[in-house]
Specification:
The chain is an alpha+beta fold. It is 59% helix and 16% strand. It has a two-stranded antiparallel sheet with strand order 1-2.
Amino acid sequence: MDIQLKRGLLDVCVLSSIKNEDSYGYKIVRDIQPYISISESTLYPILRRLESAEMLTVYSVEHNGRLRKYYRINEKGLERLREFEDEWKEIEAVRNYITRTE
């Protein structure tokens, strides 16, 4: 898969994985893994980029004596997911054009 396309897909997959509930790194990887290949070393730069873009917020909770970072999507992140849905319709149209049979 094209690296730029995959990068954009990973961003929206991460946002989607925390759309319904806050989550932490390892769980996000586990949730996404069945759909697209991602490792923790790939995930954390994505999370930092999304945080810098103000699409999610971060907070810590103590778990087994250690602090665990949790990620929460915010309105800007939800807006990105809505934009992606519109973009995907355009991508599907291009795919249909490319794979058409005459």
